[in-house]
Amino acid sequence: MENKQLQKALQTLPENLAGYLKPIVESDSFSATISALQFEKLMSQANLSDKQLRLALLPLAASYSISPISNFCVGAIVRGLSGRLYFGANIEFANSPLGQSVHAEQSAISHAWMKGEAGIQDITINYSPCGHCRQFMNELNTAQTLMVQLPEREAKSLQAYLPESFGPNDLNIDTLLMDDKPLAHHINSDDRLLNKAVEALNISHAPYSGNYGGVAIKLDDNVIYTGAYAENAAFNPSLPALQVAIIQMQMAGKNVAQISAVALVELKTGQISHQASTQSVLDALDLDIAVKYLSI
Ligand SMILES: [Zn+2]
């Protein structure tokens, strides 16, 4: 197993659970997700309730954290509408402004989104969600029903954690994050990376600025990961497409040092652009990569 932190986290789990989880987590096909069927089996094998098992899995999610600034590892697990569970963890970028950071909740949600989930049922987190994340989650198409589970707490709805909320409705927006309303843009190019970025653009959420956009990153093993931009009614909690792509790579157990090429495609009609900020995050990572950029 490549992820040493994951291996360590596995060792901290109760012995019977670790025994049942090991073959799942150590399988080559493990993608930081647990299927509904695997979850059911684990519950009965380890004799844990749904809530107990999700809480027990949190150290595995947190083991994906990249937190060189805070050394504070946050893990989140979301359950998609399909019943599959997706891990997420915080990511910090040394040498970049703190605004570029990814919170664990954003990570788990965009992980599920990029793997095709159409909504989120519940989220389990090892620390109370910050205000930024409560606002980020209020953009979801399931914001009215989403349940939040913390250790040593009863589950509560997102709306209980975010009373008198501000959201898309206040700006007369009715397309929500994770809604299945793909755009249909395409480009006449045989550049695989740019085409992948367009695929991500087509599912991006940018109803406020119109800056629909997608990023594709290629690693030194030639595997490509994509990220769609996730905009927010309160603007600042918006999650850039580069970060979403990096989350997918991180959840696959890869490292940012493996990035060999990056493409960003945005719509010309948008009121903002992520071109400069995407390049600056890559520059701060010292990757010596010029972003391949297209506005369509
Ligand atoms: Zn947060």
Question: What this model shows, in words?
Answer:
The protein is of the alpha+beta class and 296 residues long. Helices cover 33% and strands 16% of the residues. The strands form two sheets. A six-stranded mixed β-sheet has the order 1-3-2-4-5-6. The N and C termini lie far apart (41 Å). The site of zinc ion (ZN) has 6 residues, from helix 6. Residues 103, 105, 129-130, 132-133 line the site of zinc ion (ZN).
Question: Secondary-structure blueprint of this entry?
Answer:
Elements: H1 4-12, H2 15-25, E1 33-34, H3 36-46, H4 50-62, E2 75-80, E3 85-89, H5 104-114, E4 120-125, H6 131-137, E5 147-149, E6 156-157, H7 158-161, H8 192-201, E7 213-219, E8 224-228, H9 241-251, E9 259-266, H10 275-284, E10 292-295
Parallel strand pairs: 4-5, 9-10
Antiparallel strand pairs: 1-3, 2-3, 2-4, 5-6, 7-8, 7-9
Zinc ion is lined by residues 103, 105, 129-130, 132-133.
